[in-house]
């Protein structure tokens, strides 16, 4: 890496999509921490179909979003198309200013507790974890291999969704099942959305004017996927997702917590196959299963029109959230802040108000006026008297991946 190499390309490779951001990590003019200025952002969707689509926004040049449609056969073709878009703005992958490529990797098991420079052994280990992350790790591996082929000389860094949760104590991470069976099949709670929980808990401490080591935070990451975490002094001590991202909160299309016997029942009594049950719980449950919509905006609109199904779906969603706030208050003993983040957490004021309503005895309250403010900045929404701070803290997983990647290659 040359002294001028301050850019990081962040890649989030899904099974049929690639999201990317190119960030400049040059320290800001005050000489402080890396600014993480976005130079370009984009998305390739429907890879492998006739109607693939690439949307690219060259923020560095202030140019308009460019969209192209047409078949993109595979991840290699997708990354080449992204590279061509970046080159068109003078930001090509061949630039000496590119310091590294940071890859989001969903499952790092227990081995990867921190971002890791990728070599053959690391790739093998990520492959070994495919059985516990069959939907995610294969796409991440393809993204890594493709990027390596394009720039074999460049450091490639894996930033794991599970890493932040590896500090969970055994009593929180283990399921109460036969130990030998669990160990043989690596069955335990790993947790996900780790880069978001890490970023948001740190930002929340900053908002309180404290060091992360001094505060206990409950982070509620409420997007289409949703998870809660209990973070004590900067370390995760519990989180709601488990072996897979199916456990925990009610989500857009996933059930979250459910009696595991429901799955036997569906097979024995309803005659469903394993795959049917998988699809039911991951794709046809949660808000969409309860009321047909998974977008919180649409659900709120229906509630305003008096729709009972939407109301019940909302109430079930909130009830589960409350249970986790209560549980994590007990786990942490002392809570300094509850932080809402991601699409629903950052935007849906009624969700925040309802999740905290009635929890005054636990020191939690929301100020209606502060809660109604729309802003992209971290902010407090609790009244002065509230013992526990309630905050809205926009997440930024790409910035977190870029920062971790840049810090590692500069170490
Ligand atoms: P993911 O990254 O898990 O796909 P996001 O964090 O982007 O999801 O969250 C997407 C969800 O955020 C949408 O499904 C919708 O429910 C919710 N959302 C986005 N904008 C708003 C808004 N203005 N008001 C309420 N909910 C919103």
Automatic annotation (TrEMBL):
Keywords: ATP-binding, Cytoplasm, Kinase, Magnesium, Metal-binding, Nucleotide-binding, Transferase. Its cofactor is Mg(2+); Mn(2+). CDD domains: ASKHA_NBD_AcK_PK. This is Acetate kinase. SUPFAM superfamilies: Actin-like ATPase domain. Belongs to the acetokinase family. It is an enzyme of class 2 (transferase). Pathway: Metabolic intermediate biosynthesis; acetyl-CoA biosynthesis; acetyl-CoA from acetate: step 1/2. The keyword Nucleotide-binding applies. Coiled coil: none annotated. The record marks 193, 254 as: Transition state stabilizer. Catalyzes the formation of acetyl phosphate from acetate and ATP. Can also catalyze the reverse reaction. Pfam families: Acetate_kinase (PF00871). It comes from Streptomyces nigrescens. Homodimer. InterPro entries: Ac/propionate_kinase, Aliphatic_acid_kin_short-chain, Aliphatic_acid_kinase_CS, ATPase_NBD. The gene is ackA. It catalyses: acetate + ATP = acetyl phosphate + ADP.
């Amino acid at each position: 890496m040359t002294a001028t190499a301050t850019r990081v390309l962040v890649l989030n490779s899904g099974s049929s999509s690639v999201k990317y951001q190119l960030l400049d990590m040059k320290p800001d003019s005050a000489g402080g921490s890396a600014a993480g200025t976005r130079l370009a952002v984009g998305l390739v969707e429907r890879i492998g179909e006739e109607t693939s689509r690439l949307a690219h926004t060259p923020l560095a040049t202030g140019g308009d979003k460019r969209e192209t449609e047409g078949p993109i056969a595979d991840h290699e073709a997708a990354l080449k198309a992204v590279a061509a878009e970046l080159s068109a703005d003078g930001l090509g992958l061949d630039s000496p200013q590119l310091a590294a490529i940071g890859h989001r990797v969903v499952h790092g098991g227990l081995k990867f507790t921190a971002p890791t420079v990728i070599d053959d052994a690391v790739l093998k280990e990520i492959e070994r974890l495919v059985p516990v992350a069959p939907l995610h790790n294969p796409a991440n591996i393809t993204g890594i291999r493709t990027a390596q082929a394009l720039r074999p000389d460049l450091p490639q860094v894996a930033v794991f969704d599970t890493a932040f949760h590896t500090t969970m104590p055994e009593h929180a991470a283990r399921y109460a099942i036969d130990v030998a069976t669990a160990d043989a099949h690596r069955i335990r709670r790993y947790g996900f959305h780790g880069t978001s929980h890490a970023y948001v808990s740190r930002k929340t401490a900053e908002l309180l004017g404290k060091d992360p080591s001094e505060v206990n935070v409950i982070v509620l990451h409420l997007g289409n996927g949703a998870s809660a975490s209990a973070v004590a002094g900067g370390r995760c001590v519990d989180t709601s997702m488990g072996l897979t991202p199916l456990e925990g909160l009610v989500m857009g299309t996933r059930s979250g917590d459910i009696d595991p016997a429901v799955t036997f029942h569906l097979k024995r009594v309803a005659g469903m196959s394993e795959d049917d049950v998988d699809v039911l719980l991951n794709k046809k449950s949660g808000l969409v299963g309860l009321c047909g919509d998974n977008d919180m905006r649409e659900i709120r609109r229906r509630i305003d029109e008096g729709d009972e199904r939407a109301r019940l779906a909302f109430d079930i969603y909130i009830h589960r959230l409350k249970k986790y706030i209560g549980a994590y208050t007990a786990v942490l003993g002392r809570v300094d802040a509850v932080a809402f983040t991601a699409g629903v957490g950052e935007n849906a004021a009624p969700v925040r108000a309802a999740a905290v309503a009635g929890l005054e005895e636990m020191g939690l309250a929301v100020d209606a006026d502060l809660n109604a403010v729309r802003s992209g900045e971290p902010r407090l929404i609790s009244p002065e008297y509230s013992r526990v701070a309630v905050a809205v803290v926009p997440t930024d997983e790409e910035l977190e991946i870029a920062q971790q990647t840049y810090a590692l290659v500069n170490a």
